[in-house]
Amino acid sequence: MAIESVKIIQLPKILDQRGNLSFIEGSKHIPFKIKRVYWIYDVPGGQVRGEHAFIKNQEFIIALSGSFDVILFDGFTEERFHLNRSYFGLYVPNMIWRSLDNFSTNSLGYVLASELYSPDDYIRDINQFKEQKKWQK
Ligand code: TYD
Q1: Burial class of residue 28, CB neighbours in 10 A (0-12, 13-18, 19+)
Q2: Which of 16, 21, 56, 95 has a Cα-to-Cα distance from 5 of 20 to 30 A?
Q3: Distance from the CA of 28 to the center of ligand 1, in angstroms?
Q4: Residues 9-41: pLDDT tens digits?
Q5: Could you identify the atom of ligand 1 that is nearest to the CA of residue 116?
Q6: Nearest protein CA to atom 5 of ligand 1, as residue
Q7: Tens digits of per-residue pLDDT, 65-83?
Q8: Structurally, what CATH architecture does the domain formed by 3-136 represent?
Q9: CA pair distance 106, 67, nearest whole angstrom
Q10: Which distant-in-sequence residues (6+ apart) come within 8 Å of 133 by Cβ?
């Protein structure tokens, strides 16, 4: 997957004086069926999370509260995305190296995933990732 397949997706936003509402339906607003949800919270200042790529797993990352950055690398090009609203998120296809940093106080990173958790789906060595991407080109 190349960096061009990464995208910010705007979610439906129902404005209401009683409080706004947004929602996501798998395969409709995001391009995969949701099998798993996890969230990242209480991140101490300056910490970095998620330095790896997935072989198969696709993700949609939302800053439900606060803000943080997602840095994506397709083996050739790197791009940084700042997430700071609960009504849009970042679609990250499989085989993209990603890390998260610049977490604000009380930020909540909410991640929808296309696969169940599997340690075998992780590539944790950046050099191994680069090597695989070189052969895919
Ligand atoms: P991990 O994805 O490795 O986070 P990071 O790359 O930010 O360090 O997950 C951290 C730990 O949590 C790891 O031991 C596996 C566990 N974990 C699960 O058991 N299920 C999950 O869905 C996720 C995302 C992580």
Answers
A1: exposed
A2: 21
A3: 26
A4: 999 999 999 999 999 999 999 999 999 999 999
A5: 22
A6: 50
A7: 999 999 999 999 999 999 9
A8: Sandwich (2.60)
A9: 9
A10: 74, 75, 76, 95
